[in-house]
Amino acid sequence: MTINEIQDEVIEEFADFDDWMDKYQLLIDLGSEQAPLDDKYKTEQNLIDGCQSRVWLQADLVDGKVEFQAESDALIVKGIVALLIRVLSGHTPQEISEAELYFIERIGLRDHLSPTRSNGLLAMLKQMKMYALAFQAVHSS
């Protein structure tokens, strides 16, 4: 599936709920379904700056595709990072760095996050794109 097809799938899932409490519950469920991050990746280096809660992000290049893993100590944030991983993980560095992530607006996530969580979301996204760019640079040299 392409990044846009996955985004459309996410938008559809969130469209099933009118109430934001239900959407938060969906985020929490997504976060709790995610496999825990191996403790060896919970390092200062993998902590994302700009997040109010602690978020660790690990990226690996496997067969030309970026595989992301993450963990957070906050339930909603864990759900948000699980969504980002679902959309971006398993794609090439170029696909990730060129991706226009419209699902965040469409599901209304940005409007329903506190300013600090919103900044955290942007910080996670920026970090994922930075990893993709770094892998692209290494791969093309």
Task: Give your account of this protein's structure.
This protein is mainly α and 141 residues long. It has a single domain (3-140), classed as Alpha-Beta Complex (Sufe protein. Chain: A). The protein has six helices and two strands, in the order ααββαααα. Strands 1-2 form a two-stranded antiparallel ribbon. α1 (3-15) packs across α3, α2 packs across α3 and α3 runs parallel beside α6 (115-140). The longest helix is centred in the last third of the chain and has 26 residues, at 115-140.
Element layout with pairings:
Blueprint: H1 3-15, H2 20-33, E1 55-62, E2 65-72, H3 75-88, H4 93-98, H5 103-106, H6 115-140
Antiparallel strand pairs: 1-2
Helix pairs in contact: 1-3, 2-3, 3-6
Task: Give the key terms.
globular, 6 helices, Sufe protein. Chain: A, mainly alpha
Q: Helix and strand succession?
A: HHEEHHHH
Cα distance, first to last residue?
Answer: 28 Å
Number of helices: 6
Mean pLDDT: 93
CATH class: Alpha Beta
Q: Which segments are poorly predicted (pLDDT under 50) over 5 or more consecutive residues?
A: none
Count of domains: 1
Helix coverage percent: 40-55%
Give, in spatial order, the strands making up the sheet with the most strands: 1-2
Strand percent estimate? 5-15%
Multimerization state: single chain
Give a short account of the largest sheet.
2 strands, antiparallel
CATH architecture: Alpha-Beta Complex
Question: What is the C-alpha radius of gyration, as a whole number of Å?
Answer: 15 Å
Structural class: mainly alpha
Kindly report the CATH topology: Sufe protein. Chain: A
Query: How many E-type strands?
Result: 2
- What is the global morphology? globular
